[in-house]
Amino acid sequence: MNKKFAFRLATLSGLTIGSFIGGITYERNRCNTLIDQSVNPYVLHAGKDIKQLTAMPALPIFGTVSAATPFVPDTPKPSQLDQPNRVSQIMKYGFPGLDNVRSYSDYVLSYDRRNRVAHWVFEHLTLENVKSNPSVDRSKCDFKPDESIHPFFRSLNSDYKGSGFDRGHLAAAGNHKSHQEHCVQTFYLTNMAPQVGSGFNRDSWNRLEKHVRKLTKSYSDVYVCTGPLYLPKKEADGKAYVKYQVIGNNSVAVPTHFYKVIVGETPDGKLELESYVMPNQVIDDNTPLNVFQVPPEAVERSAGLLFFDRISRKQLTKINGKKV
Questions:
Q1: N or C: which end of the chain has fewer CB within 10 A?
Q2: Would you give the DSSP letter of residue 246?
Q3: 209 Cβ contact list (under 8 Å, min separation 6)
Q4: Are 187 and 173 in contact (CB under 8 A)?
Q5: How far is it, in rounded angstroms, from Cα 86 to Cα 68?
Q6: Strands (E) located in the chain
């Protein structure tokens, strides 16, 4: 009896050890396969099969850029087949971050799911693509939620209704009027942030957007990164606090400030930088824009991002109009 029991125990132990070793070998081979594939421009996408990703400037191997229109990524539309190339143009000088990156036809953003406002929005402008096309009709553009964002983290039109704030564009609609589709896509709520309307969004902020478009007359290429800031303010007790309002059922954050960091590239390859921070409040429209110029390092520290990290500061010939 003892011999039979010992034999069965030995057999069971052998099977268990064999299964364990087999499992380890399988996982090791699988892991090696992933590592071998990651040497090439491949990514592991949303828990599905390994899929190829076109190499992009400053994009780590395991970063992903998801199309931000409501369609299944496995079956892209013909109009989106050239999108990676456009992303490469827009992000030529590097990604500030890779948190929830979304690529649209003519701009790229990183979405902050907690605050329901983008971390940053990147655009590449030229004199040609900011020209107004008479066939583009802004009145046909509707504000709408981006269905590529999980419902838990979307902002909705209802959040803005009755809030007293405008749905303020980060990638300005006026920068994307060469094609109707480009203009339409700037109205996704992922590209919006609550902005004070009269005195800011419709006035001083609009002046800054026009200034950026005007730069295309001086530079062959203009790269602009726009985003929100939540800056501390000293209270009566002498301590500094970060306080900001939220609106709607989805608690969309109202930024205290907004920034724009711009790099202009001349036809002969010279690079100049401008950076601005504006408070999200009523601003006297007679205030010159240069009042809002700040060192780019100040924006980077406040935003927790590194802008244009593929450009050495030594490559810049001017910062905020001053020679470097």
A1: N
A2: E
A3: 172, 174, 175
A4: yes
A5: 14
A6: 42-44, 50-52, 66-67, 101-103, 108-112, 117-125, 165-169, 192-196, 221-229, 233-234, 240-241, 246-247, 252-253, 257-265, 271-279, 316-319, 322-323
**Dist. CA 74–CA 45, nearest whole Å:** 11
pLDDT digits (tens, 9 = 90+) for 238-279: 999 999 999 999 999 999 999 999 999 999 999 999 999 999
Both tokens of 108, joined, read 């790229």
- The first and second tokens of residue 291, run together, are 């009042």
Catalytic residues: 169
Helix (H) or strand (E) holding 302: helix 296-303
Q: Where are the alpha helices (DSSP H) in 95-249?
A: 157-160, 180-185, 204-214
In whole angstroms, give the CA distance from residue 62 to residue 80.
21
Beta bridge partners of 226: 121, 260
